[in-house]
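Researcher: Please translate sequence to structure tokens.
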Amino acid sequence: MTGARRVTISSAVNSLLQDIRYAVRAFLKNPGFTCVVILSLAIGIGANTAIFSIANALLLHPLPYKDSSRLTILWNRSPGLGITQDWFSTAQYFDIKSTHDGFDQLAIAIGGNFNLTGQGDPERVGAIRISSNLLPMLGAQPIAGRLFLSAEDSPGRAATAILTYGMWTRHYGSDPQMLGKSIILNGLPYEVVGILPKTFSLPREVLPILYGTDRADIFIPLPLAPNAAEIRNHEDYNILGTLKRGVSVASAQAEMDALTARLRREHPTVYPPNGGLTFGIVPLLEQVVGDARRPLVILLAAVGFVLLIACANVANLQLSRAVARQKEIAIRTALGAGRARIVRQLLTESISLALCGGALGILLSAWAIQWIRVLGPKSIPRLAEIGINTEALLFTLLLSLFSGVLFGLAPALRMGRVDLHSSLKTESRGSAGTGSVWGRGNNLRGLLVISELALSVVLLIGAGLLIRSFARLQNVQPGFNPKDVLTYELTMTGKKYADKPTTLNTYRQLFENLERLPSVTAAGAVSPIPLSETFAWGPITVEGRTPLAGENFINADQRIVAGHYFQAMEIPLLRGRFFDDHDNLTNPQVAIVDEYMAQQLWPNADPIGKRVRNGGLDSTSPWITVVGVVGRIRQYALDTESRIAFYLPQTQYVTRGMNVVLRSSTDPASMTGVVTTATHAVDSDLPLYDVRTMAQRVEISLARRRFAMLLLGLFAGLALALATIGIYGVMAYLVNQGTREIGIRMALGATQHNILNLIVRKGMALALGGVLIGLAAAFALTRLMRTLLFGVNSSDPATFLAIALLLAGVAFLASYIPARRAARIDPMISLRSE
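Model: Translation complete:
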């Protein structure tokens, strides 16, 4: 570096430091202005940093697995049968593995809940049976012991298990001698051969298993039978794959489509033409993010709007402050400061304010992220990974610099063009020095206010649509009464429940014990329970029904019930009867259908006495006679219609795993203790898990929608507050700077009413422009929210009209208050010379 260059850089640094020192002195002289600006920017920047941190964790960070960009999950789909996402059979796994050339590796898994006994209280744990290559494919390395061997993919080997770090520390106290010990799962011993590191997990959003808890506590081998390649029913398996390098998802999907076309031709009875069987390939990151992507993009846009509104507000404040600094700038210009030097000084002040706002914004965003972790729905994927990291800090820095330039550039350029002669004149305080304050000199302020209002309209309409949608959803009748119902899952495992009579007798004793409790009015069980992530469907054939072209069967939800389930859930009986003691293993099989199934299959006939059976047209399963019709319920979610469904009695379809439900005349949440005692009186080794009230299940099903509504509502509220302050600030400034002009008007005969009308008209004109532009923008942008809405159109007239009236009312008040003050001005005082 030459000496001249060093001198130049040193001079630039000294000049910058001088600008910063000058800016600090200016801020300290105006602490009120400084605090308002920094707080406004902190709100806008902090909100953006918080939402960026969420987006960064969910969308931008790779998954913590080996070759995560090439990892995919496969889904079995038959859109013609209403199946958009299903699991696989072992035969389908071998079909893909043996013929698809786009994968480096394919792994298969199936999840389940297991009773862990033999040490301490019985516990229900999530376990996943996996092929030996799954953990190495994901890059897992044990901190002790080993992973599964390829030989363990075949039957005949001793049962082994690998513990997650959480399971090892939580249940076994980090026992260093755990390797080689046996644990008892469902009454069977498994030798522990490995322990995974703390950094490895396989949550449900990564591997959405059909059965099991949200977390995998234990991994066990999945030995496949010799005839596994021929088993096409039991579609219960997950398939994960790693694409070969250079193979895109699109090309792999094209090869998969060719494979499924062949399978439809070769197995028309299993995959009927009307089903449209296809195997979808989904990048694993896309699977993890799921339906959180669209709300997150909308929230990013929302916080961007909040920041723009904050910047517009600060720019307005800067413009107002600039008028008061005209003489100061004129003096500096007269002393030799060039235009570029003045602009640089003012931009330095703006950027310094923005950086202070950014620093405070980081603190606000950290608090907001902590709030999201605690109060946010647990269904948000990768929730634990959200935090203020290096990327978030860099984002905040760049955003602060951008904001400083954005709100500081217009005032700086305007002040750089100051009229030296007129600014140095000694004028009255009320004169703007540029003619009428109601004229063109304030167009920039007006445009900023219009922009604030337009952005606020978009945010408020978006929030209003979500609020109306949520209100509609809360009013949806689920088909059952969730109030005063306690639920918990129960699974009877081990050799003592190997025979059906023992299982049935145990459940019967359990229901009797529960119904003997003083406050319990009815007890029963179902599999699966409404509003859970578990469900079951299958093919059925209807006696006497002529199938449509290409149709081999109908798909229907199948739910097994026991005890007084319908009474406990208050699902109404519309026709026929409930199940009774005659519906047992020795008598003909019976079913209860929901009203939707009755309407679809027997629209003009009495469904009682009609018969269906499991399987397709070639099925030899026994016929099942319909004995009752009950109301239709919302099984999957309140915003999703369920398919046709029928109920089967557990006494004929013996199931060891059920969801117990009981209705209580007291608070069900307070009954956990007595219910546990009643259950353990039947079998002390039975663990109760997923204990929740039905009302809690309803709340959980609404959690994501509620959270999105609250966040967008919060940002819309901030936008409204900032816009209100903006229009009030402009009108107050006009009144303050136009004092002399107002005095002249009143001296020439203008009344207080005339002055009031003048100022209010000015404010309402700004409001009308902002509202009209905002309505047009909202009409276009809210179409992106369609998937988030329920029962409300994205261009809902009531919401648009209500928000327009709200903004008009707010603008009127923000204009009226300074207008009243202006109307009370004494013209004699305002015309005095300073």
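Researcher: Any highlights?
Model: The chain is about 45% helix and 15% strand.
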